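Entry for the shared binder. Reason: the reviewer on the internal report wants the predicted structure included alongside the sequence.
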Amino acid sequence: MLPLKLTTALVVAGIFLIGLAGVEAGQVQPVEDPDEPPQQQQDRSAAPDPDEPDLPEIDKDTLADFVEAHIQVTEVREKYAGKLEEADEYEQVQDLQEQSETSANEAIEDSGMTVGSYEAVLVAINADPELRDKLNRKLEDAGVAPHSGSGLR
C-alpha cells in the first residue's frame, strides 16, 4: 500500500492529466447561476457578451502550425503520463508535472506558435464546429486520430 503522501501526489497528478484531457476533449462546462431561472440562463448565452474577446481568424498556415503543435503536445502528454504513473514520491510527481508543462510549451514554440496563440486557437476550435472539422481533416491527413471532443489541450 502506498503512503498517504504519495497517494495524494498521484491523485493530484491524475487530476492534472485529466484536466488537460478534459480541456482537450472540450469537457469544461460553463457554470450556471442556480438562482437564475433557466430561461434567463438560456437568453444570456444566446446574446453575445461584449466583454468576451472576438475569436481570432484562423488561416490555413496557423491551423497547420497548430496541427504540428498539437501532435507534439499529445506526444509529450503521453510520455509524461507513463512517467507520472510510475512516480513514487510527491516531489518526483511535481518535478514531472513541471517538466511536462515545459516540454509542452517548448513543443508549441518549436512549431512556430506561441503558447498564447496555441491557446487562442483552442478557444476558436471549441467555439467553431466548422473549424473543428477542418482540424479533424488535417489530423487525419497527418495520420493522427481525429479530435473527438470540442477542445484540445
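Summary line for the report: Helices lie at 4-24, 38-46, 60-86, 90-110, 115-127, 129-141.
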